[in-house]
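Figure 6 in text form: structure in, sequence out.
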């Protein structure tokens, strides 16, 4: 080994030693910084720490209230939705047979037409007449049990929601003004819905 090689080795060893010292020094600096941070947190003033905690609590309470409000809105919406579905279900059941009952009103009109001609009806065989009247009574009873009502509003005040005035007759009796004095065709109501308005004659007071 020549002198230059020995010198190179010495320089290499010195440089390596210097590099190792730098690394150790760097590690010591990093550790010192971390230790400083920990010391800062531990040594933080109680007032500042309390302030931070209060701010954190305030944020958490706000988030909690927002979540609670959102849940309550969703719950209220769901309850309203269930109520609406139940109401719609009830309405469907109430008026499920409406179209059928509308056709039955034509049968009832035919009965009324036959009964209205009293002279011709009295000439019909008594036994047969009694049988037909009994069938008519049975039909009305069944319809009534299903909330289907017949309107025969003679003597009542005219109401455009339930009646159609096909004629007005003058009267000198002020108490009869607007009163139905004759029913041309009876009306029909299913539950609270008018299926067919009654056609009526209304008295009209004039001096």
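Output sequence:
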């Amino acid at each position: 080994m020549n002198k230059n090689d020995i010198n190179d080795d010495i320089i290499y060893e010195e440089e390596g030693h210097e590099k190792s010292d730098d690394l150790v020094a760097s590690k010591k600096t990093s550790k010192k910084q971390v230790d400083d941070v920990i010391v800062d947190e531990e040594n933080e003033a109680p007032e500042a720490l309390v302030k931070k905690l209060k701010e954190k609590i305030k944020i958490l309470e706000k988030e909690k209230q927002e979540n609670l409000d959102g849940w309550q809105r969703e719950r209220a919406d769901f309850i309203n939705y269930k109520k609406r579905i139940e109401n719609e279900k009830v309405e469907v059941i109430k008026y499920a047979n409406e179209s059928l009952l509308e056709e039955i009103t034509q049968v009832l009109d035919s009965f009324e037409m036959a009964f209205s001609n009293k002279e011709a009806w009295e000439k019909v065989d008594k036994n047969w007449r009694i049988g037909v009247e009994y069938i008519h009574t049975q039909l009305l009873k069944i319809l009534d049990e299903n909330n289907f009502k017949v309107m025969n509003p003679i003597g009542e005040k005219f109401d455009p929601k339930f009646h159609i005035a096909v004629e007005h007759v003058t009267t000198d009796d002020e108490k009869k003004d607007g009163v139905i004095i004759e029913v041309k065709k009876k009306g029909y109501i299913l539950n609270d819905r008018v299926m067919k308005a009654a056609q009526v004659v209304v008295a009209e007071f004039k001096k």
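Caption detail: The first helix runs from residue 3 to 42.
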